[in-house]
């Protein structure tokens, strides 16, 4: 099983996750809630993250995710729903305060 590093800003916390894991799987690696989430299906918007580095490592955004992020005001292409991302390589994200 190949592991990749997810770095969370602003604190610089690094978590190793198996390849293909959703970013919200960090809940199983730490006792602290580092990324808030609710539905896990891309419908609540609680888990918005800003991609700082490694956008290609998070897989492609599907049209529903892109449309939903635009509805939330994050149309710049630098934001993703953590529950919809799959870690394919190392990446750095900043948790957005909602």
UniProtKB/TrEMBL annotation:
Task: Show the InterPro entries listed in the entry.
Answer: 2Fe-2S_ferredoxin-like_sf (IPR036010), 2Fe-2S_ferredoxin-type (IPR001041), 2Fe2S_fd_BS (IPR006058), Beta-grasp_dom_sf (IPR012675)
Give start and end of each 2Fe-2S ferredoxin-type domain. 4-98
| Molecular function as annotated in GO | 2 iron, 2 sulfur cluster binding
The superkingdom listed in its UniProt entry is Bacteria
PROSITE patterns from the UniProt entry: 2FE2S_FER_1, 2FE2S_FER_2
User: What is the designated name of this protein?
Assistant: Ferredoxin
- Species source reads Streptomyces showdoensis
